[in-house]
From TrEMBL:
One Gene Ontology biological process: cell surface receptor protein tyrosine kinase signaling pathway
Immunoglobulin I-set domain: residues covered: 21-88
Protein name stated in the entry: NT-3 growth factor receptor
UniProt source species: Fulmarus glacialis
GO molecular function: neurotrophin receptor activity; transmembrane receptor protein tyrosine kinase activity
Domain of life per record: Eukaryota
Pfam families in the cross-refs: I-set (PF07679)
One Gene Ontology term, aspect cellular component: plasma membrane
UniProt signal peptide: none
Keyword Metal-binding recorded: no
Keywords: Membrane, Receptor, Transmembrane, Transmembrane helix
Entry's transmembrane regions: 122-147
Length: 160
């Protein structure tokens, strides 16, 4: 029956890799579980291994994993004589803004207050910003006109 020889925590090489080695004769089929659910291979998460005699060695590879990929990873090896499995914890990134629960709209002390405004306060701040920008534009246009009209220029095109 299959026997899992090694299962290592994720390490970053070119991609994050959970390295494994499985022994079995006949050669076992391998698949992975993520938090108890079958893990489907994609372009982001895929398995690469090679068979050398009765030992299969390889990696479960992650291309730029996020906090969604954190969790328990279980390798399951199965052949006609039995099956074996082993689990390892994979931690890639911290969850961003950990104190914020979007459903309850609670806020953490980690997030500045201006990120957590209701729609009335936000629209008020936007209108203030737009008003200040419009005032600055009008002031620049008036200054430009005054400099062109009343700037010191020679009346006869002669340089002083």
């Amino acid at each position: 029956p299959p026997r899992i020889l090694t299962l290592e925590e994720p390490v970053l090489h070119l991609e994050h890799c959970i390295a494994f080695a499985v022994h079995g004769n006949p050669a076992p089929t391998l698949h992975w579980l993520h938090n108890g659910q079958v893990l489907r291979e994609t372009e982001i998460i895929h398995m690469e291994f090679y068979q050398q005699g009765e030992v299969s060695e390889g990696c479960l590879l992650f291309n730029k994993p996020t906090h969604y990929n954190n969790g328990n990873y279980t390798i399951v090896a199965t052949n006609q004589l039995g099956s074996a499995n082993q689990t390892i914890k994979g931690h890639f990134l911290e969850k961003p803004f950990p104190g914020v629960n979007r459903m309850n709209k609670t806020q953490s002390s980690f997030i500045p207050k201006f990120f957590c405004l209701d729609s009335k306060a936000f629209s008020f701040q936007v209108s203030i910003a737009v008003g200040l920008a419009a005032f600055a534009c009008v002031l620049l246009v008036v200054l430009f006109i005054m400099i062109n009209k009343y700037g010191r220029r020679s009346k006869f095109g002669m340089k002083g």
